[in-house]
Amino acid sequence: MEVMLLLVCIALAAFFFFVRGMAxxxxxxxxxxxxxxxxxxxxxxxxxxxxELSGIPGFYEAHRKDGQIDDITWDDLGMDEIYFQxxxxxxxxxxxxxxxxxRTPALSGKEKDALExxxxxxxxxxxxEKEREDLQFLYFCLGRSGRYSIYDYLGYLxxxxxxxxxxxxxxxxxxxxxxxxxxxxPPVGMMCFFIILIVNMFTYMKQKREVEPYLTSFAYVRRILxxxxxxxxxxxxxxxxxxxxxxxxxxxFGKFRNSxxxxxxxxxxxxxxxxxxxxxVNMILHLDLICFNTMLREVRAHLADxxxxxxxxxxxxxxxxxxxxxASLKNGWCSPVFPGRKAGGQGEAAAAGNPDxxxxxxxxxxxxxxxxxxxxVKNSIRxxxxxxxxGSNASGxxxxxxxxxxxxxxxxxxxTCPAESYSGDLYRIFTSMALRDNLQGGESYYIVEIxxxxxxxxxxxxxxxxxxxxxxxxxxxxxxxxxIAASTQVLKSLHRPGVLCFAATHDIELTQLLQGEYxxxxxxxxxxxxxxxxxxxxxxxxxxxxxxIRLLGIIGYDEDIIRAADEMAADFLRTGEWK
Length: 579
What we know:
Blueprint: H1 2-39, H2 50-55, H3 58-61, H4 71-76, H5 79-86, H6 92-102, H7 109-127, H8 129-142, H9 150-154, H10 166-184, H11 186-231, H12 240-250, H13 254-263, H14 265-268, H15 273-285, H16 287-301, H17 303-328, H18 348-351, E1 363-368, E2 379-383, E3 386-390, H19 397-413, E4 421-423, E5 428-432, H20 445-462, E6 467-472, H21 480-493, E7 499-505, H22 509-513, E8 518-522, E9 525-528, E10 531-534, E11 539-540, H23 548-555, H24 559-575
Parallel strand pairs: 3-7, 3-8, 5-6, 6-7
Antiparallel strand pairs: 1-2, 1-4, 8-11, 9-10
GO biological process, one term: mismatch repair
Domain DNA mismatch repair proteins mutS family: 384-570
GO cellular component, one term: cytosol
């Protein structure tokens, strides 16, 4: 009777803990769904660890191709900060694909069609809250791959060489034979058993260290396969093609799944008694290493399939992130318009055999602002040739250039513009703006600058497809006379069919020298007493004010310095000579 009572108590206790665990798991899921609901359209304040940051470009690095945004342009535009603002993702696949998407603008009719499909998904997710949140929860369960990108491991599988399980199998057989030998000749059997046991344990620790890093990526592959199975239950018509392809790909990994039952245990165990016992069994019999070798062969055989699954999964979450980012843009957004582009990526003139087939046409943006500014001043621009912008320091020239460039890039990557309306071509985008001396390479600022400009000229000469380029303070790294002469010729060389160049300068002389090639715009400021005000409004024409010397007084420079500088400047403007 007492034994039965004890068993009943144990059973009730087990049932209680089971129910409590299920209830706690349900509460966790509910809290996470509430977080997902609240996070949509909100600013994300994620903290990124250094290891995670190094893994974000993983998908991009594995899919380099012509036409992607180069490092100079990416850094000039501060695209890392825009990426972090936009990164409303829950999985590694999603955040890596988002980074890749932002560096891979559409340049052809086929890629433009892909943008339209992206727009269809983004709009659908924007409008269907429940389905969107169900999908985001699945992405949360998929999670991140750890400190590094999955591609950091998959790209180095060859370092493991050819791993065979035959040696481990032979040792296991010998271990079992030694147990049988104990029944016949106990001393010999025990000696053989302990020798084989020690050899197995020693070799296990060595091999386990070699494969342990790869278990992280294999664990993520297994979660991708689980995600592919679960995703079939969702009702998302705009993703039906992707879900069907994922299902077909997932079915190719039967052997991987079976081997993962033992091969992945070491990477996922939580220290419970059963797991600890299994660790000792693996140490003796190498069962997990044998399964790992099977998984390794399967992964090597299906690298292209894994890559495609990451692309499909990441591409869809990229659309979810963009939908959330759109909702967070309190200053508004619009979808871009790309007029006059045919399926092959050429305009109508190309089809007619026009030698000016690569002409960019009109770039027209209304209500433009920079997405990183909390309270921006919106501007508009409409041009079909180069734009030269003048104005004093801090008046808004550089910010305007970055806003136009970022808007064009976002139009061609995530089909979303921080503006009221956007119409333009499919451009190759280049900048030469926030450059620095290359101390390690021993190059001065001027050398770095002319190299950056040369890459733009080379791109224009090598490919007739449209180019949109931005140059801030042309050739600032040299003396005035040579700067104006060289800047004039460089900017004139960028005035040609198929190129739109936006340039900012302090050199008013360029507005006269280039007035036949570039439209002039300026920013201006007002000095009132001991204060200066910038309205950041783009104005037509060249800058007419000269306030650099007056700013010295506002900062507190001696009046004698200011008076002498004013006299020198006025005398130079009158005579053309410095005295």
